[in-house]
Amino acid sequence: MVSERPTNNNRSKILVVDDRSENLLAIETALKHVDTEIIKARSGNEALALMLCHDLALVLLDVRMPEMNGFEVATLMRDDDNTKHIPIIFVTAISKDEAYVFRGYETGAVDYLFTPLNPDILQAKVRVFLEMYRQKRELKIARREAEAANLAKSEFLANMSHEIRTPMTAILGFSDVLLGNLQEEEDVFAANIIKRNGEYLLRLINDILDLSKIEAGKFEVEHIACSPPTIIADVASLMRVRAKSKNIPLYVEYVGAIPETIQCDPVRLRQILINLLGNAIKFTETGSVRLVIRLVQGPGSATALRFDVIDTGIGLSEEQISTLFQPFSQADASTTRRFGG
């Protein structure tokens, strides 16, 4: 027969297993000031059945019981995926012999209590395991909430991507139509700008989706043959339009010769250059922005391309540099007012 305190779903549960009613009562009395729900069982079989019905924080398990002793119960618990995670404290008056105690730990015990029980020690140990259980439960809840939020974010990004791609595809399509019909060089140049900016917005959508992939650990970088001069020229052409709107010259400088072809991710290279130059132009009011490219020694015998973006903008203090890679950080509030973020 099972005896339980009134159920409160917010309280952690402890299973006390002993074949003697007076021992069950003694433990229950000692724990009356501990905020927990005590479930009692008088045999190993009854205890195993109760473990499948309750989410338990701890099992206080008597070693010497008829039919099935505590060691046997612990062994069966450890062999079952549903119960192997439950911590066990053996309660015994039999022996403090090291070999005997070791057998208990070997079968899965995390601690021992020897009778006659000291109520203060019992309460202290139980509270430790209840706190561990509470923290573990909160971590599970937080993880579920984080996973749900991440799923909702992914669904939002997917929907947003679709909603923006549809009109943007139409804009790019009409840009191609314009380019096929325009004759004047200035008009063709303007139509190309529209097309390039439309393509940039599509890539921006991909950037947002990439962020989701990074957080999910699914982001991949390509290593394919590409032409740095072509990418640099394309990016410079696009960003000069932005610079011109602020009357800021954008210079591209090559320090020595660079290879016509390298192995890299062309999409990411273009993305990085656009972001760096865009930021430099945004925060520069007077002066100029320069993109400097040079060949440098890489790891081992390899060589690498180095890109430096140099501007005459507001710059960053040492303190501000330390927050550079924190999301949505800003140098100060006045920066938002002057430059829009």
TrEMBL record:
<dbReference type="InterPro" id="IPR005467">
    <property type="entry name" value="His_kinase_dom"/>
</dbReference>
<dbReference type="InterPro" id="IPR003661">
    <property type="entry name" value="HisK_dim/P_dom"/>
</dbReference>
<dbReference type="InterPro" id="IPR011006">
    <property type="entry name" value="CheY-like_superfamily"/>
</dbReference>
<dbReference type="Pfam" id="PF00512">
    <property type="entry name" value="HisKA"/>
</dbReference>
<dbReference type="Pfam" id="PF00072">
    <property type="entry name" value="Response_reg"/>
</dbReference>
<dbReference type="InterPro" id="IPR001789">
    <property type="entry name" value="Sig_transdc_resp-reg_receiver"/>
</dbReference>
<feature type="domain" description="Histidine kinase">
    <location>
        <begin position="159"/>
        <end position="341"/>
    </location>
</feature>
<keyword id="KW-0597">Phosphoprotein</keyword>
<keyword id="KW-0808">Transferase</keyword>
<dbReference type="GO" id="GO:0005524">
    <property type="term" value="F:ATP binding"/>
</dbReference>
<keyword id="KW-0547">Nucleotide-binding</keyword>
<dbReference type="InterPro" id="IPR003594">
    <property type="entry name" value="HATPase_dom"/>
</dbReference>
<dbReference type="Pfam" id="PF02518">
    <property type="entry name" value="HATPase_c"/>
</dbReference>
<keyword id="KW-0067">ATP-binding</keyword>
<keyword id="KW-0472">Membrane</keyword>
<feature type="domain" description="Response regulatory">
    <location>
        <begin position="13"/>
        <end position="130"/>
    </location>
</feature>
<protein>
    <recommendedName>
        <fullName>histidine kinase</fullName>
        <ecNumber>2.7.13.3</ecNumber>
    </recommendedName>
</protein>
<dbReference type="InterPro" id="IPR036890">
    <property type="entry name" value="HATPase_C_sf"/>
</dbReference>
<keyword id="KW-0902">Two-component regulatory system</keyword>
<dbReference type="GO" id="GO:0016020">
    <property type="term" value="C:membrane"/>
</dbReference>
<dbReference type="GO" id="GO:0000155">
    <property type="term" value="F:phosphorelay sensor kinase activity"/>
</dbReference>
<keyword id="KW-0418">Kinase</keyword>
